[in-house]
Amino acid sequence: MPKKGEKKAKEVDDVPDQQEKKLPDYLELQRTRVSCKADAPIHCAYAAMGVDNSMSVEKFRKNFKIEINRLTEDDMEFDMIGVDASIANAFRRILIAEVPTMAIEKIFMVDNTSVIADEVLSHRLGLIPLDADPRRFEYMSENDVPNERNTIVYKLHVSCEKGSQRITVKSGELEWLPEGSQLNMSSPAQSGDKQKTFTSFSQSQKEIYEKPLGVKFKDITIARLGPGQAIELEAHAVKGVGKVHAKWSPVATAWYRMLPEVVLLKEIEGDDAEELVKKCPVNVFDIEDLGNVCTRNTKETCTTFLSRKRAVVAKPRACTLCRECVMCPTGEHIELRRVRDHFIFTIESTGAMPPEVLFTEAVKILEEKCERVIAELS
Known about the structure:
Structural class: alpha+beta
């Protein structure tokens, strides 16, 4: 009779044989796809059937890949294949809340006679995207002194003369001050003392950074000034993350969806096909012309022909799963699915960094988190 330890060893040796087993087609479809019907989802214990459905490093290395479909200066769309939804959602949350950017944090208001309150004006300034690479800057804590490595200073001084027309103050009016703050904290104690400002720059930022640290978009409306009104202020931008305040979020939005699949279980022809094409709001279906068909039994003496048409799935990727097609009379012949491990990921940058750089930074942050967890467990 085998010992207890020998039995366990045999069970472990049998695991590879269990992983090689395959499910029936209908169960494999259920394991890899999500059917979009009105019914509740069906769960199955795949391990009881000898199939390992767990996530492993080997499976990830074998199946994972990224395919870029669209890449512009401000947004990108790519396919993330071979990952679980939790991984895709981790990237989404990191992009929104944990990739740092530079944003205006402090406003030193000198004069504001516009109709916009100081608090509202400060909030609007904080949401203006800045053309500054946050990787070149340091975080500033409560005890740190604002310097050229952790702070960017801007000045806004705009006025509308009396008797003139109203003017619109745009974000392009913000002037970068590479030498630091120009506002004095207090008057010097003696006439020969140097006036102290709100920053302590040891050198000009022009000597450190290759390009001017301006705003990304110069046509954002900040306020409108009437005759005799003016705004004078100084704005200090620091490095931060979106989970502290949304102004530091580097993306306008980051989202994903499973790759849709549209399957015709039976051919849909004639008027039903044309009705199906009209029913879809995003033009997933199209009409395929099958040629003329004789309406009589004998083709030799046929004089009347009928054009035969059928519906085909032309753009399945455009499907939004609105379910309009499955609610039409031919809906029982259509099945909508989503691939469980195939995600269409979209990143829209606010302009601080290109979208491909944002995703790279998100990968680095996730890697740092994993290393931190491993270090804590070891």
